[in-house]
Specification:
There is one protein chain. By secondary structure, the chain is mainly beta. It has one domain. Helix content is 10%, strand content 54%. It contains three helices and 13 strands, in the order E-H-E-E-E-E-H-H-E-E-E-E-E-E-E-E. Strands 1, 2, 3, 4, 5, 6, 7, 8, 9, 10, 11, 12 and 13 form a 13-stranded mixed β-sheet that branches. It is globular. The N and C termini lie close together (10 Å).
């Protein structure tokens, strides 16, 4: 936000991918009012900005990892979330990204923030990211690893995808994948193997 509390104009475009402990496909991805596979839905969103800005602050090239823990019916709220940002981000970029992802900047993340009861302390980390198209690998040394792989469809040159959904943060086409992740953070534990994953090209703006 600006010093006079006038909402800052911001925009972001890039890659968003996720993995959680639900079977394929996570029911909550279709609607937060659907029950997830297990009593707690544990997962993450990983974000890579290809372009974007927050006021005068550029966001292109920045990455973020958002870990979540929610009840089986995500619509009930009470989520816990933790934001991890790159050590390469300067102070202005860190403030901008934290403002966006906690919903204080308006836009799509303001909708998701309504479900969050507990924000864990934001952490700055070193991201190791590889994108080979159908396979995406992201790791944080000593803390987090994930690998998602696009599911195979009957047509080799066309990826299986979900379209025409009400979804707050994803782009219009959600490519289906399978993911395996581990998180050893002292305040957040995640372990998946071949569970729900997908990715899309997002386009956000606020407020």
């Amino acid at each position: 936000m600006t010093t006079n509390d006038t909402p800052m104009i911001w925009s972001g475009q890039g890659l968003l991918f996720e993995n959680c402990n639900c079977q394929i496909i996570c029911p909550a991805h279709l609607s937060f009012k659907q029950n997830c596979t297990l009593e707690r839905c544990l997962g993450y969103w990983a974000i890579r900005f290809e372009d974007g800005f927050y006021g005068d602050t550029p966001l292109a090239g920045q990455m973020a990892l958002i870990l979540w823990d929610s009840p089986q019916r995500m619509f009930d709220g009470g989520w816990t979330e933790k934001i991890c940002l790159s050590v390469d981000a300067d102070a202005a970029q860190r403030e901008a990204l934290e403002t966006i992802f906690t919903g204080r900047a308006g836009g799509p993340w303001a909708i998701l923030a309504k479900f969050v009861a507990t924000w864990l302390e934001t952490e700055t980390v070193v991201f190791n990211f590889e994108d080979d198209g159908r396979t995406k690998n992201l790791s944080v040394d000593g803390l987090f690893t994930t690998k998602i792989e696009t599911l195979r469809g009957p047509t080799p040159d066309a990826d299986p995808a979900l379209v025409n959904l009400y979804n707050t943060i994803h782009g219009p086409t959600h490519v289906l994948a399978r993911g395996s992740s581990r998180c050893n953070d002292s305040s957040f534990s995640l372990a998946t193997a071949g569970t729900h994953a997908l990715y899309s090209q997002f386009s956000w703006q606020g407020p």
